[in-house]
Write a sequence for this structure.
């Protein structure tokens, strides 16, 4: 099992190495092209620092590629509760997207109720009270007292 | 004398004291509940206190910081899960004591020595900040660039096992810091035609995402189960007996201040170092270390709380934060239009006094809340995460929206939250990225200024790197890079064989 984890961890490191290598090369190309178009001397160029960072990233990504698969004793746990994480992330994204249409009060109450339920809380009275109470408290605190223009 | 009067004026300001108290109370809960962190609370506070007076914002944040670092010990003692990373070492002896029915005794020791450590740290800040500022006045743009680079490399080396991953995290942070209109030439960089990115990446949603939402996802991805809470029953303790370790705790606090002042090292490293010192210095502990020795708690808590004052020293005098929380506090300064650095103590003396006053008053509240309230909130540690996490998610969303009243910042927060989650899952620390996002703008402008100034001289390299301070900083950066290089380590090992 641990061997499987280790090999998967090495594969992930390899992917990460490629991604960062690609990022580094893209940033170098971007900096050089944009600097050429900007027609300023390098000392003043806004693309000097991005170029410096991109060049620095290059050996780091190669080092990551090189060390992929050799991560003895550094087994990163790759198995995690994927479903819960994905569901919560997507639910939050949907909640943020519908908030301007449903208003803060309605969308937050629904989101909280749904998330409490999804995460395993079954005391309906408690989650109902918490959803409505916390949403109202936040609305009063931010919307009314701190003048945040909540949707 | 001016400093003393300045601190006193804040201490006699009821509103200021009440705000420190509110922050301290929040810190007590946030620090003691595993899954909530001081950095998360501070990041959220930046968004809440965005429109407040700077001194009021600082008062609240200092309260959260000081008491939050201490209260991590509460869950460390009662459930063997540190509420804050700096309390990891406290679990080694705190939890065995709780198992033996001495949880109250462990807590009182943690309170007393956290208080002593915090006071010592802020005294060191008050004494040392001015001399360091006068040295920093001699710094050139290249020195600032190298100093920030040194900060990033040390953070990269200390916060993750894989040095390259720490540096990659810093590089990504630097890229994020460059997004938007360039401050020198006024050109849009890395915006890819997205209009909302023209003003750059707002630091508040980035911080809330990296420390708040990513933490929510981390907890959800592992387990929602909490630990069993040990009973905390009152024990009669003699004050003289508890305070017996004060002289040696000052040595641990000194370690804490020095480690805190090093960018990136922070509370956990200080606590570990102090603990290993305690093992060497205390020949006859009450019981062996690791089996419930109060001497272990004394070392850990004095050192990690002294780190707070220590971490403030480079943040205020050089604008280089010592840890993630001070990086967030630095963003408070920027948000409120203040410029920390060598001139800060001179030009913004009231703010410096506010920080000191916040720290000292916070440490008094640490003592009061720790002795009176902490023993009574042990049940709160067991608040189910299935209740806590949805509420924290809402706070993250409102917090990121509140800074500019725009939904784009909420999407930014979600992006950084997911990015932070994946980084943490794959052992990339988010601390170097945070530091890089905060320091990137300063590094960019100073680097270009240094190059411009040196290019007008005949001897370019001498003009750029020829000064003694510059050379020392350059050597420090190179040494940090080399000492963490795997290839070099392998080479040294081969030579030894």
């Amino acid at each position: 099992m641990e061997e499987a984890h280790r090999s998967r961890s090495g594969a992930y490191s390899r992917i990460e190495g490629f991604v960062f290598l690609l990022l580094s090369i893209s940033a170098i190309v971007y900096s050089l092209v944009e600097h050429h178009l900007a027609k300023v001397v390098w000392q003043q160029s806004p693309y000097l620092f991005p170029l410096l960072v991109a060049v620095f990233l290059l050996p780091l990504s190669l080092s990551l590629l090189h060390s992929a698969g050799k991560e003895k004793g550094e087994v990163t746990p790759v198995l995690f509760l994927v479903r819960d994480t994905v569901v919560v992330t997507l639910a939050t994204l949907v909640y943020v997207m519908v908030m301007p249409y449903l208003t803060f009060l309605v969308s937050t109450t629904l989101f909280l109720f749904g998330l409490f339920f999804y995460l395993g809380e079954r005391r309906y009275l408690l989650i109902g009270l918490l959803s409505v109470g916390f949403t109202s408290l936040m609305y009063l605190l931010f919307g009314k007292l701190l003048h945040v223009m909540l949707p | 004398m001016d400093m003393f009067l300045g601190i006193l004026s804040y201490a006699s300001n009821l509103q200021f004291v009440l705000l420190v108290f509110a922050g301290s109370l929040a810190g007590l809960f946030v620090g003691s509940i595993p899954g909530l962190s001081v950095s998360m609370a501070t990041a959220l506070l930046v968004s809440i206190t965005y429109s407040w007076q700077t001194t009021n914002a600082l008062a609240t944040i200092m309260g959260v910081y000081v008491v939050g670092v201490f209260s991590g010990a509460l869950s460390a003692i009662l459930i063997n899960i540190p509420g804050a990373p700096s309390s990891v070492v406290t679990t080694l002896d705190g939890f065995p004591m709780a198992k033996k029915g001495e949880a109250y005794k462990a807590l009182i020791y943690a309170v007393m020595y956290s208080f002593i450590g915090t006071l010592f740290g802020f005294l060191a800040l008050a004494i040392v900040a001015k001399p360091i500022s006068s040295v920093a006045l001699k710094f050139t743009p290249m020195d600032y660039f190298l100093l920030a680079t040194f900060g990033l490399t040390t953070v990269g080396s200390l916060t993750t096992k894989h040095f390259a991953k720490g540096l990659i995290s810093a590089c990504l942070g630097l890229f994020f810091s460059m997004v938007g209109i360039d401050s020198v030439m006024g050109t849009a960089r890395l915006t890819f035609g997205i209009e909302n990115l023209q003003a750059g990446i707002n630091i508040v949603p980035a911080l809330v995402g990296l420390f708040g939402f990513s933490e929510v996802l981390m907890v959800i991805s592992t387990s929602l189960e909490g630990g069993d809470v040990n009973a905390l029953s009152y024990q009669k303790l003699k004050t003289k007996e508890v305070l017996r370790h004060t002289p040696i705790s000052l040595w641990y606090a000194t370690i804490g201040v020095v480690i805190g002042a090093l960018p990136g090292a922070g509370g956990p490293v200080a606590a570990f170092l102090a603990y290993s010192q305690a093992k060497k210095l205390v020949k006859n502990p009450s019981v062996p270390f690791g089996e419930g020795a109060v001497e272990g708690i004394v070392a850990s808590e004095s050192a990690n709380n002294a780190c707070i004052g220590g971490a403030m020293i480079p943040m205020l005098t050089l604008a280089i934060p010592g840890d993630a929380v001070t990086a967030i506090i630095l963003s408070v300064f920027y948000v409120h239009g203040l410029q920390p650095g060598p001139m800060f103590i001179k030009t913004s003396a009231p703010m410096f006094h506010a920080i000191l006053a916040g720290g000292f008053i916070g440490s008094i509240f640490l003592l009061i809340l720790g002795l009176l309230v902490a023993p009574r909130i042990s049940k709160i540690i067991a608040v189910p995460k299935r209740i806590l996490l949805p509420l924290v998610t809402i706070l993250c969303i409102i917090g990121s929206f509140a800074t500019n009243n725009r939904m784009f910042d909420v999407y930014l927060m979600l992006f950084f939250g997911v990015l932070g989650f994946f980084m943490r899952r794959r052992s990339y620390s988010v601390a170097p990225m945070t530091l890089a996002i905060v320091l990137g703008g300063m590094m960019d402008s100073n680097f270009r200024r240094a190059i411009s100034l040196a290019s007008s001289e005949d001897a370019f390299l001498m003009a750029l790197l020829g000064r003694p301070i510059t050379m020392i900083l350059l050597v420090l950066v190179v040494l940090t890079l080399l000492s963490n290089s795997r290839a070099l380590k392998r080479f040294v090992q081969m030579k030894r064989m």
About this structure: Chain B has one domain: 2-496. The mean pLDDT of chain B is 84. The two ends of chain B are 60 Å apart (CA to CA).
